[in-house]
């Protein structure tokens, strides 16, 4: 099985069971396979899978994650350190929205960067590339790549 297959199974099982002991027992094979490549915990894999499932859409909110894995927002607070660990490893990004009708002090929403999605698609470990201290030419090459990712290559 490839990474996408494992993530599909993890998502299916998490939606069915939530993040309870039954989920971790039944999804063990898939969690272990993803963990071997990504080097993150089973809980982090499950949370990452919930955000990954929404790629291409707008960012996913904590409310939506809680609803999908059948837990309360209070239970989801237990997983905030895991979400922070995913952010620290650059596997997900968080953003605060400031829509007209939405308060800016709301909980963050999460998305998966395109380079992480490509690593999953290619069954390779994601390696973050720091973009500091670039030469002017490298800076503009990176900026062009990022703009192409955000606009879909337009």
Q: What's the topology here?
A:
Elements: H1 3-17, H2 21-26, H3 28-38, H4 42-52, E1 60-61, H5 62-68, H6 73-77, H7 80-88, E2 93-95, E3 109-111, H8 114-121, H9 136-151
Antiparallel strand pairs: 1-3, 2-3
Helix pairs in contact: 1-3, 4-7
Report on this structure.
- There is one protein chain.
- The longest helix is centred in the last third of the chain and has 16 residues, at about 135-150.
- The termini are far apart.
- Helix content is about 55%, strand content about 5%.
- It is mainly α.
- The chain has a single domain, classed as Winged helix-like DNA-binding domain superfamily/Winged helix DNA-binding domain (Arc Repressor Mutant, subunit A, Orthogonal Bundle).
- It has helices at about 5-15, 20-25, 30-40, 40-50, 60-70, 75, 80-90, 115-120, 135-150; strands at about 60, 95, 110.
- Strands 1-3-2 form a 3-stranded antiparallel β-sheet.
- The protein is built from 9 helices and 3 strands, in the order ααααβαααββαα.
- It is globular.
Number of helices: 9
Q: Major sheet: order of its strands?
A: 1-3-2
Give the total of domains.
1
The proportion of residues forming helix, as a percent range, comes to 55-70%
Q: In terms of per-residue confidence, which ranges show pLDDT below 50 for 5 or more consecutive residues?
A: none
Determine the CATH superfamily.
Answer: Winged helix-like DNA-binding domain superfamily/Winged helix DNA-binding domain
CATH architecture title: Orthogonal Bundle
CATH topology: Arc Repressor Mutant, subunit A
Characterize the biggest β-sheet.
Answer: 3 strands, antiparallel
Our Rg estimate from Cα atoms comes to: 17 Å
Gross morphology is globular
CATH class: Mainly Alpha
Helix-strand string: HHHHEHHHEEHH
How many strand elements?
3
Structural class label:
mainly alpha
Mean pLDDT: 85
Indicate the proportion of strand residues.
5-15%
């Amino acid at each position: 099985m490839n990474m996408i297959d494992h993530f599909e199974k993890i998502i299916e099982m998490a939606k069915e069971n939530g993040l309870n002991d039954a989920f971790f027992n039944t999804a063990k094979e898939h969690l272990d396979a993803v963990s071997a490549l990504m080097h993150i915990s089973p809980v982090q894999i499950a949370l990452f899978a919930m955000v990954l499932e929404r790629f291409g859409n707008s960012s996913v909110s904590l409310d939506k994650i809680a609803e999908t894995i059948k837990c309360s927002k209070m239970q989801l607070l237990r997983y905030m350190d895991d979400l922070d660990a995913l952010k620290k490893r650059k596997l997900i990004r968080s953003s605060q929205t400031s829509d007209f009708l939405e308060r800016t002090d709301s909980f963050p929403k999460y998305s998966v960067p395109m380079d992480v999605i490509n690593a999953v698609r290619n069954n390779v470990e994601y390696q973050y590339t720091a973009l500091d201290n670039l030469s002017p030419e490298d800076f503009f090459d990176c900026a062009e790549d990022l703009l192409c990712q955000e606009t879909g290559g337009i």
